[in-house]
TrEMBL record:
Keywords: Isomerase. Signal peptide: none annotated. It is an enzyme of class 5 (isomerase). One of its GO terms (molecular function) is chorismate mutase activity. Residues 1-86 form the Chorismate mutase domain. It comes from the Bacteria. This is Chorismate mutase. Its EC number is 5.4.99.5.
Amino acid sequence: MLEKQRATIDRIDRELVKLFEERTKTVEEVAEIKLENNMEILDSGREAVVIEKVQSYLEDDSLKGELADLYENIMRISRGHQQEWMSKRNS
Ligand SMILES: C=C(O[C@@H]1C=C(C(=O)O)C=C[C@H]1O)C(=O)O
């Protein structure tokens, strides 16, 4: 009954995981630059811009709130990853 839709979701998830890994590797490069330049992990201005930007890519504006929620979580995880990465680098 749900096979076709779930196969589509599985395909999308595979792509999302690939992109998540690519984003996270890039975030590690950001962490390295921040560590070298004594910069704060959190950049609230940039986070606000990211959310506005991704919302502008939507075709369905009714998803704006959910997309903001998703990106708030992605960036929270991103900051946690930078923290971990910096701690390992310093140990
Ligand atoms: C990756 C960065 O670090 C943090 C995480 C962000 C992100 O994951 O997009 C954005 C801003 C920062 O709070 C950055 O400064 O660009």
